Amino acid sequence: MPIYKKANRRKAASYEVLNNNVDYGTRHIDHLPGPYSPGLASPYADRTDFSERTRRACQTASTSFYLCACKAVFVGDVGTGKSSLVNRFCHEIFDGSYRGTVGVDFEVEKFHVLDHAFSLQIWDTAGHDRFKCVANYYRNTNVIAVVFDMTRAESLMNARRWMDEVMRHNHPGTLKFLVGTKKDLLEFDNHQEIESEAIKMAQVLQAEYWSVSAQTGENVTRFFRRVTALAFDGAVQRMMEPNNPVVHPSGNSLLNLYFLKKDEKDKKLKKCSFCRIN
Ligand SMILES: Nc1nc2c(ncn2[C@@H]2O[C@H](COP(=O)(O)OP(=O)(O)OP(=O)(O)O)[C@@H](O)[C@H]2O)c(=O)[nH]1
């Protein structure tokens, strides 16, 4: 029996048959997924497992906590494939036609990390200059993914500008990724060539590099699982440091209200240990 779901809340009014091969097990994470390539320099190269403190906090029977959603912002030049990447992961769909994002779109993906419920808010922003006003949404993000099109070198050159722009609004500890899309369109040699440039750029940006294809799905799930696990690890660490200034993880009180209302049951039973929301 095929599953039907609205293809995209904003972009299309049509309904598409979802791929029944969606592996919902990908939302359960009990080991920290590795980086794109273990040999590549990455600021998080040594993060190959959850930190001991996080594991202990999650395993201790007496520790019961509820983490607010972490926020991941996707930015990059127009048409680089941000929406396609997000839609491939969230809905297992790929649409070859192009419909530019208007302003900002967001998805919420629910995970179970080390047996704790955890949500990732995915903010998919428009690359077009006329939506520069969306910069307000860059605030208080936990993860920044600068997306470039591997078939368009200039989109890689612009990655620095995008990273600087988002980092102006954020803490230096924000997790940073540089993601090359449309891997399927490149021959092996071309891919190697652009990849070596991208790795240099990732080092400059102090970001972890990934190469993906929304068309084939290559590396998409791996990438999102890595992002989620690192964000979770960071959130648990911050939760355990009560003396640190509380930086609100999602940066949008209206959205938090929405999630809290949605999880009314959870709210009654638990309170967010990080945000101290009662
Ligand atoms: N072959 C191939 N095409 C892709 C891939 N990812 C995206 N595309 C195509 O590239 C075009 C732009 O993709 P979008 O996902 O809409 O790009 P975007 O970055 O969200 O664009 P804006 O919202 O305007 O910033 C579309 O025609 C997609 O089908 C990919 O991995 N492989």
Quick rundown:
With 278 residues, this protein is an alpha/beta fold.
Description:
It is a lipid-anchor. One of its GO terms (molecular function) is metal ion binding. This protein has 278 residues and is an alpha/beta fold. The protein has a single domain (24-241), classed as P-loop containing nucleotide triphosphate hydrolases (Rossmann fold). It is built from 8 helices and 9 strands. The protein has helices spanning 52-59, 82-91, 153-157, 159-167, 188-205, 220-239, 253-262, 264-269, and strands at 4-8, 12-17, 28-29, 70-76, 104-113, 116-125, 143-149, 175-181, 208-211. The strands form 2 sheets. Strands 3-5-6-4-7-8-9 form a 7-stranded mixed β-sheet, sandwiched between helices. The chain is globular and about 50 Å long. Residues 1-22 and 244-278 have low confidence and may be disordered. It binds guanosine-5'-triphosphate. Guanosine-5'-triphosphate is lined by residues 78-84, 95-98, 100-101, 126-128, 181-182, 184-185, 213-215.
Features:
8 helices, Rossmann fold, two-stranded antiparallel sheet, alpha/beta, disordered C terminus, 278 residues, seven-stranded mixed β-sheet, globular, binds guanosine-5'-triphosphate
The hetero molecules present are: guanosine-5'-triphosphate
**Helix/sheet category:** alpha/beta
CATH homologous superfamily caption: P-loop containing nucleotide triphosphate hydrolases
The CATH level-2 architecture is identified as: 3-Layer(aba) Sandwich
Question: H/E element string?
Answer: EEEHEHEEEHHEHEHHH
Shape: globular
Uncertain stretches of 5 or more adjacent residues: 1-22, 244-278
Compute the CA-based radius of gyration: 18 Å
CATH topology tier name = Rossmann fold
Strand content: 15-25%
CA distance, first residue to last residue = 42 Å
Number of domain modules: 1
Strands of the widest sheet, in order across it, are: 3-5-6-4-7-8-9
Instruction: Give the CATH class.
Output: Alpha Beta
Rounded average pLDDT: 81
Provide a count of the helices. 8
